[in-house]
Amino acid sequence: MLKQNPKTVLVCPLNWGLGHASRDVVIIKQLLQNGFKVIIGTDKAPLSFLQSEFPKLPFIQLQSVEIKYPKGKQMALKMLFSLPKLLYGIFKEHQMLKKIISQHTIDIVISDNRFGLWNKNIYSVFVTHQLEIQLPKTIKFVKPLVNTINRWFIGNYNTCWIPDFPGINVAGLLSLPKKTPANCRFIGILSRFNPGNIQAKKYDILAILSGPEPQRSIFEQILIAEFKKNKSKALIIRGKPNISGSYSENNIGFVNHLATNILTQTILSTPIIVSRSGYSSIMDYLKLEKNAILVPTPGQTEQEYLAKKLKTKQWFYFQNQNEFSLKKSLEKCKNYHVPDIDIKEGLLENEIKKLL
Q1: How far, in Å, CA of 191 to CA of 345, rounded?
Q2: What structural domains does the chain harbor?
C-alpha cells in the first residue's frame, strides 16, 4: 500500500537480548505493508540483528538502560537495587525522544518494553506481555509497588499491545492480571518465522543461545560439556548477530548468527531444540509447532514462571540450568507436545490499520 504522505513510525525494542527485536520484525513488516515510513531505534545486538533484517531502513542509536546480570540467581534482588538507575534511564530516554520527534518528524512511536518512550504530542504504543510482573518469594513484599509503577508507565501510552490472546493465554498471569489497564489490546502471537517444507536433517540437536552475559556464556559451556558426552551431531547458535563466522569442534558446530530463512529451516529440520524460555522463543516454537527443551535464565522470574506453566500444560519440558542433564531432558521431552493453536495473525493487522 502506497500513500502520498505516509506517517512516520519509530519502532524501539528493548536491547536486553534479541527477543524484543525478533518479535518486532512482524510489527515492522506489517507497518511497511500498510504504507508507513519506519525508523528503528535501538542499539547493540538488536541493532545488528534488525539491520540484517531491514538493511534499507533508517536507524537511530537509542541506548537502553545498562543492567549487569549476576552469575547467581539474585537477578530480582539486583533489579530491585537497580531501580533508581532504571528510573533515571527511563527519564533520559523520555527526554531523548523529544529531540528525536523534532529531528525526524515522528508521528507514532511503538515501544517494546521501553517505559520512557511516550510523548503527549504524538500517538504512542507500548508492547509487552508482562502486565503483572512476577517476583521471587524473597522480595515478593514489593510486588504491589512494582506492578503499580508498571501500570502507571503503561497508562502513559495511548495503547498497550499484548502479544497473546485470551482463552489459551500463553503467558498466563503475566498477560492476564486481575486488573488489566483499559488501554490494552491483544494482538496474538508474534513470530518472524513461517512454517515451510522440511529439508533433510543435518543435526540431531539445535541449541539457541540468547540473553545477556554472563549467563549466556555459562549456559554455552554447560551445553558444550553435555553435547560432548552425548556424541550426537549438534549445532549451537551463539546469539551474537554483530559477529560473523562459524567453526566446529568434534561433534559440535558453532555459528554466531543465522539469517531468518536459514534459521527457520534449521529449526524445522532438527528434531530437538534447546533454548531459554524467553517469551519470544516460546511464540516461535508455537508457530512452528516445534518441540523444545526450555532452560530459564537463572534469576529471571518471568522465564522461570513461563517454563513451569508450560511444563504443567505438557507443552514443553524444562530443567533448571544448574541441574541440566541432556540425557534426562531428551528422555523426558518425548512426553511433551506443542498444541495446534490459532495464533490470531489478524489481530495485529487490525490494530495497525487503526494507526492509519
Answers
A1: 10
A2: 8-191+344-353 (3.40.50.2000), 205-335 (3.40.50.2000)
